[in-house]
Amino acid sequence: MSTPPLDDRDGVIWYDGRFVPWRDAQLHVLSHGLHYGGGVFEGERVYDGRVFKLTEHTERLHASARELGFQIPYSVEELDRATLELVARQGIRDGYVRPVAWRGSEQISVAGARASVHVALATWEWPHVFSEDAASLGIRLATSRWRRPAPDTAPVRAKAASLYNICTLARDAADEAGYDDALLLDYRGHVAEATGANLFLVSDGILYTPTPDCFLSGITRGTVLDLAADLGIEVVERHILPGELGDFEECFLTGTAYEVQPVRSIDAHEYRIGKTTRALSEAYTRLVHAPADAATGV
Description:
The chain is an alpha+beta fold. It has eight helices and 16 strands.
């Protein structure tokens, strides 16, 4: 059975402070955020009916909006409460939450200071990004021609919708070429990240990850770094050149939707799913299914 489109589902969406029927959660075609990229968002996972690290995500949504020069008109606490109520109303056990904030339709101008700010929260069942066997087999990446911009050319510390144009172009090209995802370099030619996830590599039991100085350091990335410390795994955060990719034995991606996703190849470089990847994947799975005080803080 085919999956229904996201604009034609039953249930409710939290929209500007109230719950509205799913199909009624719409915005005007002249919204500033649609025309000029004035929007930020988050991705959150629901495990066993609980939202993992909800407050961290909500705080980052606020921080992203500030980076784009606008203020979200609902506090972190208000959005957290609305999210939990929404998940309960929708009966989500294993799914995804999408908070989004954008500038409204008071004006069509590059300037956005006079535009209102709208916020919506939606949630739906979504157990996997890739096929169910991707966790055991790994996925294939192709290096994209698109690069992450320099910090003085884009709001790289924000989870901004406008920055994902690069990811869409890179992912579409990878899909067309038969790969699962794309690897992006940064403006200097260093290894950066995948289209929606951070990158980790392993050599001789040491965990390496690119320095996030021009791309978002994800919440899942931070969680995995904490887990590595708990497991006694040495971590090196540094700039990594594409020519080094063949020097590593293991590779995986991290992200809210990706979780800990093994990678079996990047271009012609092949990797195995080794003990470091397995240990971190298992530790992450235990954490997200842990009692609420350990996994969610709510």
